[in-house]
Amino acid sequence: LSMDRVQEVIDATKKKIAKGLLKEKDQVFLHTGPHHDDIMLGIFPCIIPQLREASNRFHFTVCTSGFTAVTNDMLMNFLEETLDHVRQDKINMIEYSDFFETGYMYKFDKDVSHYLDKIAANDEAGKLRGICHRIVRVMVDVYKLKSREELVAQLEKNIGLLRSSYGGQKNPPDIQKLKGMMREFEEELVWAHYGVRVKDIQHLRLGFYTGDIFTPQPSTKRDVEPILEMFRKVRPTVVSMAYDPEGSGPDTHSKVLKALAQALRIWKEEEDLSNLRIIGYRNVWFKFAPAEANVFTPVSLNSMAVLQKSFKDCYISQVNASFPSYELDGPFSDLSQQIWVEQFKWVQLILGKDFFYENDSPKIRTTHGMIFHKEMMLDEFLMHASELEKSVEGEVR
To answer: If DSSP codes are grouped into helix, strand and coil, which group holds residue 260?
Structure first.
């Protein structure tokens, strides 16, 4: 390499880091993930500084229910605990006269706040009670229960069904929905750390995600239209999404990317989206090469500690993941941290270690990891996604 080329690479790397340090204002962020935890594992430290800016608005959307990550044993144990809490009258809200009519719908944020209070208090029994409160609401919603007696009977029925099922067996739709709603609670807990309300977290439960070994391709009516409606409602200025090529990890990632791209193309026909920015991120399944990414976000030890604590407190189903990565037999948060540290070493090779520990910026001096992502304007993203979009069934023309 010529010295001019070396200096060009150094300058480009510094520009990517500067972009990762920019503080956004007056933006509407819509962060999307194929599964629960994908957003956190991909760009959690990138999001937190923007969440602290009061002029920004935030919405989080998980596109599939992710129910396959919840084992039968895990759900059965929580249902047994819930049944025990109900029998001991520890779920006080079910005694309210309107709870089974409409009352169960109104305090989903209370379950979240209760659970986080108990994390702060190191109260494991209190955390369990918070989960049981949410399961009661979910049971009433799924089965349209009308009384405490119906609730107890349905809990007993579901426990019996799960006891007689074998691991890996496809669950009936109602059990799938219960499992998915447990994962939705996990996602709400994570972003509530930063004051994000339940109503600002959308759970799309796209229909292509069936629990079968081979799931269908996304279709326009079933999978694209719900995303399009979300775009119309939220009207984001920045959209993030998992940007994994097909075959690089769970096929859910590439299928969600296709559906998002198709919805954006349709929305573009209705609105002027010339200023819409797309953030393409990757996490534990696939990585950016440094030259592919155009934003490098420095990660401190403090951010890593928050990631680890939040992940293990909130993503209960993922601490011992049913589908672990081949790279690490442990929580996905450990693998994300490992990737960020590895990526930081690549940047240190370019800029030198002293660039960081002797830097005038405290933020740079505290860097011990690096997140790579690719930011694009909408037209550039759609150009890259066009090949994927061709395989969407029922494409709108």
So the answer is: helix
